[in-house]
User: Fold this.
Amino acid sequence: MLTSNRALYERAVKVIPAGVTRPFRFFEPYPFYARRAYGCRLVDVEGNEYVDYWMGHGALVLGHMPKCVVDAVKEQLDLGFHFGVCNEWEVKLAEEVCKLVPSVEMIRFNNSGTEANMHAIRLARAYTKRMKVGKFAGHFHGVLEPLYVAVNWPWDEPESAGIDPLATKNTVILPFNDLDTCSKIIKKEELACVFFEPVQGAACVPAEKEFIKGLREVCDQTGTLLIADEVITGFRLAPGGGQEVLGIKPDLTTFGKAIGGGEFPVGAVGGRKDIMELMDHTKHPKRSENVAQGGTYSGNPLVMRAGYAAMQEYKKKDVYNSMNNLGGRLKTGLQDILERIGIEGYVAGLGSMVKIHFLKEKAKNDDLQTLLSKVHKEREIKYFYHLVSNKILAMAPGKVHFFISYPHTREDIDNLITVTENFVKSIK
Ligand SMILES: Cc1ncc(COP(=O)(O)O)c(C=O)c1O
Assistant:
């Protein structure tokens, strides 16, 4: 063995805060460091192999190292992979996204979901000439200040030290799936936009169809732009993302993760032409009338080409049939365990996003606020480590949820159900 997880961690803590590049990558007593990945498997530096449901934070819809992406990237590596100027692959990827996601008439690429949301806010403010931004309690849109508010329960605590209160003073918090309250707030506040996740990521709680339909209507009545954050759900729930499944047409959509084939840093904002054209400096030459967007690596040919290759797979029905069927199988299996063994909990999810909520007491199904407020934190943490000890990696300690990808099999899902059943029996 060349190195061990422990040895790497001991070096890491000296030069990286907590030894990790993101807090929830820390596991007790120390994290493992991955060396290799393929399909739905992840192998650490000690050779331990895990069935992966973390799946690159949900990005890897086609799994680790999908052949189509690897082949495309290999070809591009020989041609150059950071031109700085325009390249054919950004055009091809933009065309594909506009075809697959009908609400997207135009698109600009950047390097992360966080960045995409930053650009979306600026577009909305420029278009509506309003400054306030609506977001749902419990929804995560990256760590940019106007949206990094009321993410983790309880909502009343600031999400981070160092946030300028002025940067969040125009943020208006809305209750998810509660149309009456949202309508009242939106009618009163004169918002530039409302951001929503079609399925709240970590809790896997979907928007109710009637709710989202009503939200669309109230946004139309009040001149508020509706922005779908499809950083997770885009190309995961369907080729057209969560908006296809929910039957909704947002004004703007933000993407990340799977839009670049899942293996690279990427983001994008797209939507209605009349809004997106605010980024067109040839139509809006005056600096103060043009929405600024940038990024050294935006539209990088390696990433764009990987995304284009992945799109050819996303167009195939089989990808989503397989992932959604496995998601349904997992949901039913987990629900059955809770009912049979008699442990308080609820299984949430849509398509390939599934979560078992261990609860202290009964909560209303798919009510994000009560689910999060009643979570049995100790059980959630214990469950994570039980899975890890059975060589299953879920995302993440204390917030266990599963991203199913195309390479997962029925056997993988059945094994996950059996391992969960053993856990639930052990805590009964
Ligand atoms: C719904 C959602 N929006 C935005 C982001 C931020 O994306 P990124 O991590 O690429 O900045 C994430 C990240 O997980 C996300 O889940």
Remarks:
- The longest helix spans residues 317-341.
- The CA atoms of residues 59 and 145 lie 23 Å apart.
- The mean pLDDT is 97.
